[in-house]
Here is the input.
Amino acid sequence: MYNEDTEMLFPMRVVPSLADLRGVGWKRLVARVAELEEEDPDALAFGLMMIRLSGCVSCQADSFRALRGCTACARQAILRYRGSDQDISRLYEKARKEIQAYLSGDSKAKEGHE
Here is the structure.
C-alpha cells in the first residue's frame, strides 16, 4: 500500500506540524525553519536532524512507519525524544555545522568525520 505522505527522506512540508510538540524554544526553531526555502542551509540542517531522529535512512516502503506516513513518524519521533529542548537545539546546531562544513568543501565533512 502506498501512502501519499511517505517520501524517501524527511520532507520539509512536515515542519509546521511539529511546532506544538515541545516547549517555546522548539516552537521558535520550527517557526523559523518553516519560513525558509528548502535549499537554505538551516533548513537542510533541520532536515538532517529529523532524518537522524526519525530513522528515515532505515525506513522501508512496506514498514509500519512508511505506511503511517512521514508526518506521523516525525511527530512520534519528536514526542518520544527523551532529551530536553536544549538537547534538540544541540542536535540541530551539530547538523548546522556539518551542513556548513560540507557546503564549504571541507573534505572531512564529506567523508562523514567530525
Observations:
- The chain has a mean pLDDT of 86.
- Residues 12-110 form one domain.
- Helices lie at 24-34, 41-54, 64-68, 70-80, 85-103, 107-110.
